[in-house]
Fold this protein.
Amino acid sequence: SGLMTAKTYADGHGESYSYDDWNRLAVKRQARTVDGQGTPLATSYAYDPQTGNLVSVTHNDATPSITCTYNHLNLLTQVTDDSGTRTLAYNQYNEAESETAAGLAASALNYLRDGLGRPSGYSLHYGEGVVQQTAWEYDGCGRLSTVSLNNGADPFVYGYHAVNGLLETLDYPNTLRRWYTREEKRDLLTRIDYMRPGSVNYPAKTDYAYDALGRPTEKKDYFNTPAPDLTQTVS
């Protein structure tokens, strides 16, 4: 079947793997031992006999186990481990709608969508307050245009090439701009510049070179210097 059954490291230790009749990983035995008799740490994987979904991960030591629950569409709905229980909910289109965690880190992550069903951001709640939230907007071509963080006045702004439509610029709220340059005919990425107003040199820049078949041949990294700090070649 070609399944990997063992892996040995330079120090002579390693791991071994065993599988069930469906070629699914059943037990992984690691180099680390769990007692003074040399018993290896063994992790066992159990699957639902009807759906084949992974339902539990257990260990032969004090490592906490993990259990998983799915709905009738085989979508993951609940994960329980030593930190608590995480519950996942979906909308009528089976798209992720929320993740609610109960236990050590009680929180709720809500996924937002616009009127066309596209992802439009998320909000992370912890306790009674909102820890973080984002808002995404799109241009007339359905491409991501802005991302705002915590209702900030200055969002991340995405710009696209007028001809090929590929991502060309990303403006940061702190006035930094990331600029992508591509070959005219092959659209291969040849440069990534980080620009900041008033800087003598680019805070960071990477140049790429390719051969006639479009394979990478060279990469140059600049860090606020006119000459490359690091050059890598491929042959």
Q: What stands out?
A: The longest strand covers residues 129-138. The domain at 154-235 is CATH 2.40.128 (Lipocalin). The radius of gyration is 25 Å. The mean pLDDT is 94.
